[in-house]
Design a protein that fits this description.
Elements (H helix, E strand, L loop, with lengths): L2 H15 L13 E7 L5 H12 L3 E5 L7 H7 L13 H12 L7 E7 L4 E9 L5 E6 L18 E6 L2 H14 L4 H20 L7 E4 L2
Parallel strand pairs: 1-5, 1-6, 2-5, 6-7
Antiparallel strand pairs: 3-4
Helix pairs in contact: 5-6
Amino acid sequence: MEPKQFERLVTRARALAEPVHGQGHGQGHRRLLGLAGAPGSGKSTLAARLVDRLDGLAVLVPMDGFHLAQAELERLGRADRKGAPDTFDAAGYAALLARLRAPEPCTTVYAPAFDRTLEEPVAGAVPVGPEVPLVITEGNYLLHDEGAWAGVLPLLDEAWYLHLDDSVRVPRLVDRHVRFGKDRTHAERWVHASDEPNAHLVARGRDRAHLVVTMS
C-alpha cells in the first residue's frame, strides 16, 4: 500500500475515534470500524497497522475469534470447509459487537482471538477497556447478508472492503498456510477447494461497503 493511501485511511479511522458531538469518550457510545475482504486480502495486517498508528485510541477485535472449535466442526461434519460462514458463531459475534458499541463505565469487555498455530479460538484474549473510543474488527463476512451475519453491518459505523488482485492474493494465501504448518500441496488444495469458494461469497458484499480499499 502506498504511504499516502495508508495515511488517508489513518485519518479516516482517527475521525471515527473522535468523540460523538455532545459526548466525551467513555460516555456510553463507542465507534466500530469493520474491515472485510476475501481470505488473504490483507485485513489483519491493515487492521494491526491502523491500531498501532492510532496509539491507544483503538483495539483490534478479530472476527476469527468466533470460529467454532475444531471438535465442534468435526461433530457437525464441517471440518473440511473450515472458514465457511456456518463454521463461525455469527450470532455470538454480533452480540459482542452490540455490547462493544455501548460500553459500561469501569467495565472491560473480553473478546476472543484466533491462534493460527493451534487453529483454534482463544477465549478472553482481547481486553477492551471502557475508555477505548474505537474498535476495529476484521473478517471475511462483515458484509454478508444471510442468517445471523445480516446483523453485523448495522452495528458498524463504517465498513471497508479490501480488494487485492487474485494474482497476488492467492499465492500469498498459499504461502500463509505453509507458514502455519501445511505442506505446499495441501495448502494449494485447501485454497482452491475451500478459501476460494469463500472468497467468491465474500465478494458479493462489496457494494454494501462504505469504502473500497485497493490493496497491493
